[in-house]
Amino acid sequence: MSSSAREIAEEWLSHLAVERGASPNTLSNYRRDLERYLTWLESIGVSDLSAVTSNQLEEYVADLRRGDPSTGRRPLAASSSARALVVARGLHKFAVAEGTLAVDVAASVSPPAAAQHLPDTLSIAEVSGLIDATSTDTPIGLRDKALLELLYGTGARISEVTGLTVDAVHATEGMLTVTGKGDKQRLVPLGSMARKAVSDYLVRGRPALSKGKTHALLLNKRGGPLSRQSAWGIIKDAAARAGIEKDISPHTLRHSFATHLLEGGADIRVVQELLGHSSVTTTQIYTHVTATNLRDVWRQSHPRA
């Protein structure tokens, strides 16, 4: 690598420190990624930034993702590769701004897409086992069953369920007013099982727990609002009683709600509305889940799979 390229890198680091006030830790990370980039260019025989092409930058990112088993260089995750590209692009952008380069070939290079982690779900039988494993002989048991039925029956977030008030339940209409992100409210249907669990809790459970201090629907033993942490513990305990070994969370029931709806033929726009997603793009991850299930069934069932 020519000294001019390394001089540009040093000038950019100085610019970041003096003009942008970058922290020592940030500068250290940038210096490491710059050295990685400049050394890689050296390895392919490129001696000057002006000779770099967009194709070479794309190959640089791909090489980071592949790693090199022969040298023990481990593959970088998509997020780490994206950060390395940000640094390389920043160097080229700075060189153009300083007049050292005429064209910014890095501007058109996109970072690698992050791996999409499909949400874990429970089968319908597992959900039934989870809920049925909760006894309703005590006010606490009635509350716990109402919590589980609400989470799975409405697909609401745990914070939305623990934030419910008594007035949010419209038993006659079979609807629930859920307050989501940004205090945006949506109406969600209450199924027959969820409605019965909530009704039983309101009649036989909540009065025994209430100290008259709050309008919160779900109460703790002291009569205050049930916290998210306590709700998490309730779900873990129910899973243990049901013999479910999956590492489930409140969001697992939300994922299961969406997946089971789509598998049952629900329109994705309806599921989007029920989940309170502002964009259908967020909801589309569940179509990947159901597509995976379809492929698994096909592989097991089709004679030429």
List keywords for this structure.
elongated, 305 residues, DNA polymerase, domain 1, single chain, mainly alpha, 2 domains
What does this structure look like?
The chain folds into two domains: 95 residues, DNA polymerase, domain 1 (Orthogonal Bundle); 178 residues, hpI Integrase, Chain A, CATH 1.10.443.10. Helix 5 packs antiparallel against helix 6 and helix 10 crosses helix 13. The chain is built from 13 helices and three strands. The mean pLDDT is 88. The chain has 305 residues and is mainly alpha-helical. 57% of the residues lie in helices and 4% in strands. A three-stranded antiparallel beta sheet has the order 1-2-3, with no helix packed on it. It comes from Corynebacterium kalinowskii. Forms a cyclic heterotetrameric complex composed of two molecules of XerC and two molecules of XerD.
Record the SSE blueprint.
Elements: H1 3-18, H2 24-43, H3 54-66, H4 78-97, H5 124-132, H6 139-154, H7 158-162, E1 169-170, E2 175-179, E3 185-189, H8 192-209, H9 228-242, H10 250-263, H11 268-275, H12 280-283, H13 285-301
Antiparallel strand pairs: 1-2, 2-3
Helix pairs in contact: 1-2, 2-4, 3-4, 5-6, 5-9, 6-8, 6-10, 10-13
What is the gist of this entry?
With 305 residues, the protein is mainly alpha-helical. The chain has helices spanning 3-18, 24-43, 54-66, 78-97, 124-132, 139-154, 158-162, 192-209, 228-242, 250-263, 268-275, 280-283, 285-301; strands at residues 169-170, 175-179, 185-189.
